[in-house]
Structure formats: structure tokens, C-alpha cells
Amino acid sequence: MTWLWRRGRALVVAAPVLWLGLFFLMPFLVVLRVSFAEAVIARPPFSELLDWADGLLTVTLNLGNYTFLVEDDLYIDAYLNSIRVAFVSTLICLVIAYPMALLIARSKYRNLLLMLVILPFWTSFLLRMYALIGLMSPTGFINSALALAGIGPITMMQTDFAVYAGIVTGYLPLMILPLYSTLEKLDESLLEAAHDLGAKPWKAFLTVTLPLSAPGILAGSLLVFIPAVGEFVIPALLGGPDQLMIGKVLWTEFFNNRDWPLASAVAIAMLALLVAPIMFVRNALGAKE
Amino acid sequence: MTAPAAQRAPTSAPKSDRAFIRIEDVVKTFDGFRAVDQVSLDVAEGEIFCLLGGSGSGKSTLLRMLAGFETPDAGRIEIDGQDMTSVPPWDRPVNMMFQSYALFPHMSVAKNIAYGLKQDGMSRADIEAQVKRMLDLVKLSALGHRKPNQLSGGQRQRVALARALAKKPKALLLDEPLSALDKKLREETQFELMDIQDSLGTTFIVVTHDQEEAMTLGSRIGVMDQGKLVQVDKPRDLYEFPRNRFIADFVGSVNIFEGVVAEDLPDRVTIASDALGGAIHVHHGMSCQEGQTVWVAVRPEKMVLRREAPTGVLGETVGGMAQGVVEDIAYIGGLTHYRVVLPSGQRVRATLANRERHDDAAPTWEETVWISWAGDAGVALTS
């Protein structure tokens, strides 16, 4: 029995490890390898790193892709802009999601309300973004309604606003759910104790509810921030041509310029940039425990 | 609070008879259920008042209305002469110690205690001094920097007490203050709680379901049942002079014999009881009519259990007697509980103190014995 048990445990662990190794680690290593190659007009469009000739092994590591990222303002601007957009969207999500999560956590109809929060996930992400175009385009729903009132049209498409609207509608549930799960666990007698000790509701919220929901805030923020930084679909569909985001740059390098090594370097740099905040948050949470 | 401790009576004696907390005809209904039903109660300053009742008796709801977490549907609550009926909890001069303690898990012990003082806008130096005083009071001076999850249950209970007392409330409301502690610790803490109350002179209102705890702590006890305050009395009066069968049964254990009034004299009543299989004499007057059904309550420790028939005269020194068979014996060390079956089928509990180490002569299982009690041991109840 113990033999079977141990085998079973090993199998349970092996399956995800194998999956991650095959479909996450391997592609990552491929991308890492390509990022050190040189772009060539060939198939595949990058040079070999290893060369074996006359008993001599030559390793050619091209660091030019990475130095180019720093030298050309385009990439730095795109990174900074992506982070800015992701940060602002995360903040908007947090401000909208917190009261919602608090309300759901204290509602009698929490299951129904949670269902409604998750409901949009049943529609394809792409479809939801197209629906936003239908709402915001110059001849869309909003402008048609405004035209009836004799106002407008207002330009919404191809603006920062459209990108924020897209990210916030797309990712809001990812903020609400972790917030809900921490707020729902919050012991109500703690708030009563705060009130009893003289804290008015607003003060009790700031000193008790808010600090105790910090893990939920951090988890939700990461869930929104990380995909928002690399977001490609939303800026491509809703954003303007001057809306510089790293996801779009990556796409252009890969498919328009066919510069796979540079695109790979962009991807690796982005990953490194995203790992830093995750590690920071993990440590911050770890210190709290 | 100005009187020195030495001049104070050893147990929480009220400072005055003036009603410090006044509850008038308070009603609270939840979804059509009357949780608190027309309760009126006066609590004197400096007293430890215990609200005793089972779960759902309304004792916690009453306490929560004093704290301000619930608003009465009808009636009035007054604290120190001021109407508090609809004052929110943050503006009330009372503090509460929660059953779960409700310590803020993200704050240190010192921060927890300082929380209420900060809300009052007290200066930093004053807060520090008061926190130190409170930590000394509950003997936790060394643990001020710890987080609540680094404390034992008993220590957490002290922090909760210190936090609730830090603002020098006019009354401290304690919701099952000792229920989370184990038995030994609970007994120690009971006395500590009384010492602290004695040294501060703060009015305590304690909610508990544990009658022993209520008896130990309370200068007076109010027993609640189904939203109503059934009896308010000193512990001894509650035990020896219960108002009805519910109180007699709820506070301690009791034998109750049903019977009808056979003779009603000003200073004594004779009751014919089929349950006992004979007459019961009660040495106190009561307002009743002949032929009325009444119940006589006799505490197990007031029962005399012997092989021989009692020597006294029934109606003079003996209040009641009957022969029965020992059905069960529970030896618990200091005491032995006997259960005797009477011919009527009624079971009688008798408790004997084990004064001697060797007692081979004690009645044993299946033995026929006499039970009896003294003329003034029983209480007749009309409801």
C-alpha cells in the first residue's frame, strides 16, 4: 500500500512537472536561445549559436539584441508606457472592485452576485473587446444615443481611454475574486470591536478592513497588472497607432520585421521585468506570515 | 473610583443603590422572533451583574444593545443618567470584551490596547503611559510587542480585557469572558477578574451560560429565558429561593415533587404528593388555595439518605420522607451522587459529602433506603 501510495504521489507531481517542462520551460529556453542569435534571411530566420568545424567548437552569443533594446528609445518608451498603462488600469480596477467585493462579501445574495461577476468569462475575450468597439466607435451605440440627444460624436476609439476601458472590463473579475475571498473571511467582530473602541465606520475601515485585506489587494493587483503589461489584443483593437505598448512592439518585430532574435530579447526582458514585482510581493507577503 | 481599595468590601459591593445602567421595557425582534421581550433592569454603579441564560435566551442580544450594536425596537437604555437608546457604539461610554476576544491580528498587543485611546485623540505620551498601566494590570508587561497569534489563550483573554478597560469605560460588557479557557485557568481567571474589578470599581455586566461562573462573579444575577428576565437576585437567594421551576432547575440541580395543597396555614403548607407517596410540609407561608397544584423543590445536597427511617417528626423537623431503591451511584471524589427510585417511579437525586476516607457502610446498589429532608429545606413553587 505504501508503495502504491508513494507511486501515486510521484505521479500526481510528475504530471504537472512534465506539462510545465514541455510547454513552458522548453519554449522559454528556445526563446532564450533565439534572443542570443543574429537575424538572418533564412528559414528559420536566426543564426546557430554553436558551430562545429575542424574539431573546433565555436559558441557565438550575440548580445546585440539586448544592447539594442537599451540604445533605441522605442523599446524603453514601450516598456515604460506598458507599465504605466498596466499600473493605471490596476488602480482603476482596484477602486472599482473593492467596494463591489465588500458589498458581495456582506450580501445575502453573495452566490448570485459572484456568478454575475464570473459571467463575462463565459464569453470569449475577443468577442467582449469587439463588443466594446461596437459601443465606442464613432457610429457605435454610445454615439448613436448621444446623437439622438443632439450631442457628439465623441471620439473614444483609438484613445488611451479605450485601452483602459478594455483592460478594466476584461480583467475586473480577476481583481474582485481575490478581494472577495479575503473580505469574506474577515471576522465581523473585529469591526464591532473597532466601533466599540470609538472608531467611526470610515476610521474602522481604514484601520481594520483595509490592512487586513492587503493580501487580497496584492493578489488581485498582480493578477491584473501582469497580463496588462504584456497585453497585445486590447491596444491593437482599441488603441491608436501611437499607443506604444510592448506587446504590440513584440508583434511588429516578430511578424512585420521578421527579426526573431530581437523579438525574443524583448520577450525575455519583459519577463525579467515582470518577475521582479512578483518576487517583491512574494517576499512582502512572506515576511508578514 | 476615588475610594481606596482597602475601604472597599472584599467582593464587588455596589457603590450606591442609584441605578447606573437603566434598561426600561426593552424589546428586540429578529424576523418576528422576540429575542428580548419587555426587559427592565437597573444595575448599580460598581456592581458585577451577571446575565445568565441558555443559548437563545436573549442575554447576548441584551448585551449587544447595551454596547450599541443593536437598537431596541421599543424601550429605553440609560447609562449614567444619559439616554443611550439610539447612540452609536463609537459614542457610548462603555466597552465590550468579546467572546472571541476580537483582537486585531495585524497589530501588536500594545497597539491593540492603544487603539481606543487613539480614537479619542489622546497624546502619544499619555497613550504610552496608559498602555503600560494596562499591561501591568493584566500582568503582560513583557509581551507588549507580540502579535495576538503569538499568545496563549489565557494571554489573549488578558489583552482583550486590557483593551476594553484602557478607555476607562463607565461599564465593561463581558460576553462569555471565560468560555474559551480550560477549567483550571477559568477558575484562576475568575478571581483575577474580580480583583481587577475591585481595584478599578468599574461596573461589569457579564453574559454567561455557566451558572457556576455567574455565582462566583456576580454580586447579582439576572436569569433570562426566552427573551424574558425571569428572576434577578443575589446568588444565594437565586439558589435557595427560586421563583419558579425553571429557575430551580436551571440554577443547580433539584428534585421537584408535584402535589396538591392539602392544608394552607399562615406559616406552613401541607402538600399531598403522589410522586413522593406521602405528605410534604413546607415551613413557609405562600399564597395558594387548597386543592391547587404546586411543586416542591429540594436540592440534592439537602437530601438525607439512610438505611433507617428518619427519627424526626414529619411536619416538624422533617419536611418529607419516602422509601426507595438505590438505582445509581456516582462517586466523584469529594461528593457521591445517589439516584433513588421511589415506588411512584420518580427518581430522586441525593448528594452526600464524603467526609471519611473509608466508608464501607455506605448504601449500595439495589439497596432499599430512606430519603428525607428537613422541614425548612424545601421550597414550594406555584409555577
TrEMBL record, chain A:
Coiled coil: none annotated. It is found in: Cell membrane. The chain crosses the membrane at residues 83-105, 112-133, 161-183, 204-229, 260-281. One of its GO terms (cellular component) is plasma membrane. Its main location: membrane. InterPro entries: MetI-like, MetI-like_sf. The keyword Cell membrane applies. It is a multi-pass membrane protein. Pfam families: BPD_transp_1. Keywords: Cell membrane, Membrane, Transmembrane, Transmembrane helix, Transport. Gene3D superfamilies: MetI-like. Residues 79-281 form the ABC transmembrane type-1 domain. One of its GO terms (biological process) is transmembrane transport. Belongs to the binding-protein-dependent transport system permease family. CysTW subfamily. This is Putrescine transport system permease protein. It comes from Albimonas donghaensis.
From TrEMBL, chain B:
PROSITE patterns: ABC_TRANSPORTER_1, ABC_TRANSPORTER_2. It comes from the Bacteria. Its EC number is 7.6.2.11. GO terms for cellular component: ATP-binding cassette (ABC) transporter complex. Residues 21-251 form the ABC transporter domain. It catalyses: ATP + H2O + polyamine-[polyamine-binding protein]Side 1 = ADP + phosphate + polyamineSide 2 + [polyamine-binding protein]Side 1. One of its GO terms (biological process) is putrescine transport. The keyword ATP-binding applies. Keywords: ATP-binding, Cell inner membrane, Cell membrane, Membrane, Nucleotide-binding, Translocase, Transport. One of its GO terms (molecular function) is ABC-type polyamine transporter activity. Belongs to the ABC transporter superfamily. Spermidine/putrescine importer (TC 3.A.1.11.1) family. Part of the ABC transporter complex PotABCD involved in spermidine/putrescine import. Responsible for energy coupling to the transport system. NCBIfam families: potA (TIGR01187). The complex is composed of two ATP-binding proteins (PotA), two transmembrane proteins (PotB and PotC) and a solute-binding protein (PotD). This is Spermidine/putrescine import ATP-binding protein PotA. It comes from Albimonas donghaensis. The lineage of its organism: Bacteria, Pseudomonadati, Pseudomonadota, Alphaproteobacteria, Rhodobacterales. The gene is potA.
